Structure formats: structure tokens, C-alpha cells
Amino acid sequence: MRDGTPLTGDFGQRLRHLRTRAGLSQEALSHAAGVSVRALADMERGRTRGPQRRTVQVLAEALGLDDAEAADLEKSAAVGRPRPRTATGPAATGTLALPRDIKDFTARGPALAGLLELARDTGPDRPGVSVVAGQPGLGKTAFAVHAAHRLAPHFPDGQFALDLHGMDPEPTTPRDALARLLGALGIADAAIPAGTDDRAGLWRSLTGDRRMLLLLDNAVDESQVGPLLPGAGPALTIVTSRHSLAGLESVHRTDLALLRREEAVELLTRIIGPERVRAEAQAARDLADLCGQLPLAVRIAGQRLLSRPHERLSKLVARLAAEGRRLDGLQAGSLRVRAAFALSYRQLPTDTRTFLRRAALAAGADFSPETGALLAGLSYDDAVACAEELTDAGLLQSDAAAERYRFHDLLRLYAAEQVAIEDGPEIRDAALDRTTRWMLRRATAAALHFDVEHEGSPPGGAHDGDPDPHGDPNPDGAPAGREEARAWLEAERAQWLAALRRAHETGRHQQVLDTAQAMHWFSDINQHWEQWVEVFQRSADSARLLGSRRDEAIHLNYLAWSYNMCVHDPHNALTSADAALAAARDCGDGLQEGWALGYGAGALHRQGLVPEAQTRLRAGADCLASQKSAQARLAELTILNSLGTLLRQAGQPVEALETHRRSERICRAGIPGRTDELIALYHAVARQQIGNDLAALERWSEAEPPLRQALAAFETAQMPAWAGPARLDLGHVLSALGHPEARATLLAARDDLTGLRSPRQAEAAAALEALSALSASSTSSASSASEETTAAR
């Protein structure tokens, strides 16, 4: 040897001599070799007597040793390693070596960094444990194996991997698992204690001073894992499980999310090669989406394409696009998405299996325990218990704030398959009908909180066997007050809309009418919901099928409103309004005739037919003025406000102001049988239009107060669809006045209107640009004036 260092001897002394000779500190060698400072210190002090071959290799490379020196260092390490033993029978398990790493492993950088930090933090009194849990197909085992290989240099006393077979009918018992682990440490069969506790004690004593890494894959529960964890020492244990193992205390948790779309495409690229992905870039992105960014599904798709090098990606995309064939397409050899889901599904208790598969019938992206309970035929409490069990098992994801749950898309398809297999169409339809009846009754009762016609006291009556179709099906759990009713209607929007759809398709037309009628006032404060078109189209169809021309006129008017205000489609709005007008005249309903004339006028106005619109509005106002009901007065207010707006836009602001003042006088006089709160909203609309009329007359200072009053009223009533336009109108006036609030008001209006998908968002953007240009011009003029003054001096 070049420096006289002995060929054999204590590994730690030799390592320290070589490091000193190289002029490296422990920190420098740690950085160069990727081995922690703590691990190096343990080796040099003799606490780690026989590091693994891979660790020795990276140290030799970092120290710049030649082949002979590296071989000598390996010999000194081999002396300190446990000697292999000869054994027979079940305990002859070998070394429980780590499985092969996957070369195309993709993403998971933050999760790997978290484990590396945990590995660095382990010490004699701080053994580390990380639980990697989650839904089937996330790649938990692949991640854990990859992480173990990356971390191996930090654990020179060995790396061991043990499959606990948690998804098998009979998972590995702690007693058998301990026998295999003890055998891997060189304990002869005859020396392994008989009892689980004694085996666990021996295991803890042997691992107490070892810097080792233990991978426990596929654990079933805490009781299986607990006895296998080292009690002390600098070991790191990585546990994978489909269950959350929430009962394990003082553990680090590694949360694996679905891949991002670009990560899924990267994984596909690593499997099949960049050329094929570049050739069909959009198909690759579509394929990632159809796989739901689930690593297992993406890998299966990639392996399938890899085995068919001449098959286009778009062909597989077309196959997977059909939901009924998607799970069939996601299989490649022994890799099958359906099989991964089936392993977890088969382990569930009967009620939990029922809950999972029936929940797949729920509409929308997520569902509540109420919906799951109705579909599964369980009590609410039992449904919550099932949902939580499924969340712990990684089969559902819970909402971060609300008590709601969601499926992964592929798991929903699997659960829906099980409905067809285990329940059949009769049970499935009964579950859907039960849920439909309940949902529409709850939706009707919730919506009536906003209906001024009923003032919170819905009328009684019965049909279709329901004792009180307007009452909540569960009064004790019903939303209390408008805020709770609003929250429920918004959260369950997809579900009650699906229920309305099913009720219509199965002939429950009176219930469709009741629900849509109750939604009338609620829809007015949520004009940005495009689904109102479907709601009122179905209710109008149900009225026609029931043969009620009056109901048909009412709901066709609602439909005309939704086309005008929600989807900005004046052509269909006019068609619906004309149909409502004909139905109203057929049944002699003057109120609905007036509404139909007003909605038709709105549609004509939006098509640029201003004279025709004015004619209809004047006819509507005359029709309603002859009616004596409170409903007619409210309709008259709406028609007058619309007429005044048209007059202003037609260049007749003085007549417009007179018309809106007429509306204001009606509001101030009050309407018998209607609340002050409701009249205040109509008064706010009149004030908004009066402010706009005054602005058209360039009476800016007079225009500001009524616009502020209108905006405040709409905000108090929590009506964003009305507040956004009012804010824009105020912004125009403030800009004309040079008011310092002008920019902030216009910015807020633009954001509001963009969120509402209002056509006026472009108007707000233009107003902001004009204000910026005016400000820039003013600044430039002031600067020029200053320069001229300076020059004059």
C-alpha cells in the first residue's frame, strides 16, 4: 500500500485514516458520498462495524481510492457484517433484500425530500417511522422501494424489505413477520423465541444500535405493524398501506397525491419513449386525463403501448373514452386497475361495500353522507361511519372543510360496475327513486325560504303519496334560515338537479312543478347559474304534460327569464315568451300575460329591436295596471323599470327618469301583503335606474347617492348578480366626478362581472382603460405645465 495502511483491521479506523489522508472533514465526505454525517461518525467510532457493500462503494469513490484500496476497504467492512447461516424450514428467509428499483420512476420529489429529511433526523433515541398510505394505484410500493434505494447509503447496517400481504385473505401475522426479520439478521431457527412478545423483544434488542432501513410493505393495520417497529436506535422504517393506520403514534406521514397532468405525461414518456409522445402530444395529454392521473393506470397504459410499438396513442384514447370500456382497456398482462380496486373492495364489510357501490350513483363531483345514506338504504350515522371507513381505506377522499366525499374517476367506474353485478336494475332504480323523492322535498323546502309568496309558510297538499310535498323530509335536520338553506342548495346543486331530471323522466311531473316553482325567487339571486334553463324547461314540459295552461304560462315565463338573464340567449327567450303569452291568453291570466310581454320585450331589446321592445313594455304595463293583486304590482314595477331603461338607452333620459320616479312612488306607497324587505329590493332597482338616468343627463353629483343606496341594498341582500352591475354603474359616475374611489370601484365591478360571466365585464374593462388613459393624460399635462413654469423662471 502507498501509505503503509494495513490491509485488514477495524473498518472505522481505516475509514478515518483514509478520510484524513484525503483532507476531508466528515461533512465534506458526507456531501461527496451522499452518506449522512451521523452515519459516518457511527462508522468511525465502531458503532457500525460492517456497512453494506453499496455504502462502501460510494465512500471509496468519494475518497478517490484505486481498485486495490477499494477492495481492501470492502474486506475490512465484510469482517464486521453478520455471517451467513445455514438454515432449513420456514425461517430460512435470506436477507430480505430490497426489491428491484424502477428505472422509469417519475415525480414525487417533495415526498422523497421529506423522507430524506426524516432519515437525517434519526438517531439513537429517535428511530424514524414513515407511513405511506392512500388509495389503490397511487404507486405506494414503487415509491417506497425507490425511496429505500435512494436512502440506502444513509443506512450502512442494512436494508430489509418485507411484504406483509395486507390485502390477502390471511395477512402475515406479526409472529411470522418477526421470525423472518430475525432470520434476516442471522438468528438461527432454533434461537428464535416461540412467542410474539419474546420475538419482538429480541428484535428490538438487536436493532437498538443499528443504522438500518426497514420497508414494511402492504400492511393491513396497526396491530400488525406495531410489534415490528424498532424501539430505539437510528433505524428508519417505511410502512406502506392502503389504510391510513391512524392509530400509529409519533410517525411521519407521506401523502402521495395523484400525478399532475404533466407528470403523468412524463411517466408515459419514460415508458414508451419521447418520439411517440412528441408525435401525438395531445393524445398523450388526453390519455393522462382518461387515466385520472393515477400512476397505476398511466403505467398500465404505457406498458400496453410499449408492447404494441406500432399502435397509435389516439387509438387507445378512443377506446378509453368510452366509460363502459375504460377499465377493460386499462390492463396489460397481470397489471389491471380493476384487480387493484377489487382487492380493497372484497375486504370491506357488507354495509360498507353497499355504501361504496351505491355512492357511485350520486350526481356531481362529490356527495354528502345524506346522499350516500339514501342510496345505500342506511341511517345517516351508519353512512358517516361507512364513509369514514372508506376514507381510512383510501377508497374515498374527504373534503378538507365540509363533510363531503369524492371518488377517483376510475374507482367510481368500478363501483358502478358492482352496482350492475350485485344489485341489478330493480334495486338500482329503487335506490335512485328513493333519493329523488327525498332530495326534491328537501330542495323545495329549502328554496321556499326565499319565496316571498309563501313567507316561510308553504301551503299543504298531497300528491304521489307524499303527505306534505312541500315539507322537509327530515325536519330535525332541515336547514334553518336562509343562510343554511342557501348553503345546502349550493352544495347539493348537482344532486337535486339530477333528482329533478329523474322525476321528470319517470313521470313525477307535479313534484317537478313544485320544486321549480319554489326555486323561482332563489334563482333570481343566482342568475349566473346556467342550469336554470334546464330547470324551467323541464317544469314547462311537465306543466304541458299535466295539461295545465296556467302552469305552462308560469314556467314558460321562468324559462324566458333564464334564457335572457342566465345564458344571454335572446332568440330562445323570445320563443319561450311568445309561448307563455299564448298560454296566458288561452287561460285568461292577465298577470302571466303581463310577464310574458315584459320578457319578450327584454329579448327583443337584446336583439336590437328597440321600438318593438318599447311597444311590448307599454302593453305589459297597461295590462298589469288593470290587475289588482300584489303580484301584479310587483310585475308592474319590473316592467316600468325595464321600460325606463329602454327609454334612456334610446336617448330619452327625461322620460326615462319620469318612468323610474313612477316606480319609486309605488315602492314608497308600499304593497299590501308584501314585506318591507322585498319592497326595499324593488326600490333599490328603481334607485339604480334613477341614478343611471341622472348620469345620462350628466347630473353626476345627483346620480351618486341613489347608486350607492342601490348597491348597499343588493349587498345586504347578498345578491351578487344585481350588485355587480350596480357597482359598475356607480364606477362610471365616480369616474366622471374624478372621485378617488373610481378605480377601486371599477376594478371590483370587473371582477364581479367576470365571475358572473356577465356580458358587461367588457364594459367594465373598457371603463378602466379609459380611466387609466385619462389619468396618464392628466399626469402628462401636469408635467408639461411644470416644465413650462420652470423654463419661465
What does this structure look like?
The protein starts with 10 loop residues before the first helix and ends with a helix. It is 63% helix and 5% strand. Helix 10 (222-225) links the parallel strand 3 (213-219) and strand 4 (236-241). It is elongated, with a radius of gyration of 37 Å. It is mainly alpha-helical and 793 residues long.
Keyword list:
disordered N terminus; mainly alpha; five-stranded parallel beta sheet; two-stranded antiparallel sheet; 793 residues; 63% helix; 5% strand; single chain
User: Counting H and I runs of at least 4 residues, what is the number of helices?
Assistant: 36
For the termini, the CA-CA separation is 91 Å
Helix and strand content put the structural class at: mainly alpha
What number is the mean pLDDT?
89
Unreliable parts: 1-8, 84-94, 455-467
Shape: elongated
**Percentage of residues in helical conformation:** 55-70%
Name the beta content range. Answer: under 5%
- Write down the Rg: 37 Å
How many β strands by DSSP? Answer: 9
Quaternary status = single chain
Biggest sheet strand order reads 2-3-4-1-5
- Outline the biggest β-sheet: 5 strands, parallel
Summarize, please.
With 793 residues, the chain is mainly alpha-helical. The protein contains 36 helices and 9 strands.
